[in-house]
Write a structure and sequence with these properties.
101 residues, alpha+beta, 3-stranded antiparallel β-sheet, 3 strands, membrane, transmembrane, transmembrane helix
Length: 101
Amino acid sequence: MKLLVNLIQILIIGVIVYPIYYVWETQHIDNFCREITPGMSDKRLIKLVKEYHVALDGLDESGAEKGKWLAQVKAKSSFSNYRCEIGGIANKVAHASIMEE
């Protein structure tokens, strides 16, 4: 019985904490995505990633100069695949937008 009570308490705490974390993380990614401008260099993008402490997937620094690339910053808390998608050509950013599926 005590185990059941402990599980219910953990569930209640999770239900309260998760929405707060979700809102905080998605706003953080929104703010990061708004800072990205077309024409920004890939070096400036990497610097922005470090400033915001986010994980950028899909951008290989050595391969970015060769052609088109697509990178993204994903929200870990989202079940809907919430992310900032960043596309570029050579070593310049072409676009950045929020995606949610």
